[in-house]
Amino acid sequence: MPSPTFILYSCLVLVNLVFVAAWIKAARGRKADLRPSAGDLAIGVGTNFLDTLGIGNYAQITALFKLRGRPADDQIPGTLNVGNTIPSFFSSMLFTTAISVEPMLLMCMVLSAGAGAWIGAGLVSRMKQRTIQVFMGVALLIAAFFFTLTNVGILPPTGTTMGLEGWRFVVAVAANFVFGALMCVGIGNYAPSMALLAFLGMHPIAAYPIMMGSDGVLIPVASLGFLKSRRFAPAVAVGLTIGGVCGTLLAFPLVKTLGDHLTVLRWVVIGVVAYAAVSMLRSAMRAQTAIAGR
User: Fold this and answer.
1) Which has the closest alpha carbon to 182: 147, 215, 154?
2) Which residue range forms the structural domain that includes residue 70?
3) Cα–Cα distance for residue pair 117/271, rounded to 1 Å
């Protein structure tokens, strides 16, 4: 029987190859402009730099999209996922090889997240714009809440183990299924993963390979649904991809050296994310008012 590590890496490579093939096919059929702007590239670099350091990037990207007014709200979830697929593959390979987590736990959590994303993407790709705005606004508030808990020292408690057994193993795998589905509406999985694993007694650093490995499978799985529905901005996604790979490679050597120096940066992120959450929910309220006034 193949080892859990072999199964994990095989899945990572396979789903990402399928994603690349599907994106090429979609690009040829759509004949859309794939030239990203300098802003798209900059967002990719900056947010994936933060993501690699453990701050996350979905909430920040959404906030920046709202601040500049593009892409359209209903295209944000798809653009997030399609644009972050390749950078997440790089992150997953880097972190799963650099930080050792119990192989069976890592494999099961990664595959569980992928299954959650498959279900979640199918639901999100059929949602109306106002529904997406509400989900994204709530998702941003949840992200800001987790960031605040991290900054004030409530999250996470200190753990020591790099693996789980018994009911803790089952809880972790089941929860990662939910996190995978929530990624499709813009709730990044680092903060919830770190909270869960720390609560179950794992070392905080264990969240890195589990979260990055999960992203390496669940994001391309989710993106296949968005490629099919075409609810994403192609040029913006290309910018996130190119910039994201650069940001990931720049940040990776710093992961074990920054420590508490990220606290100030997290407070800035909290402010930006909170603004975007309010903006998204106000857009949803305006849409509802317009419908009611007809």
Assistant:
1) 215
2) 4-292
3) 28
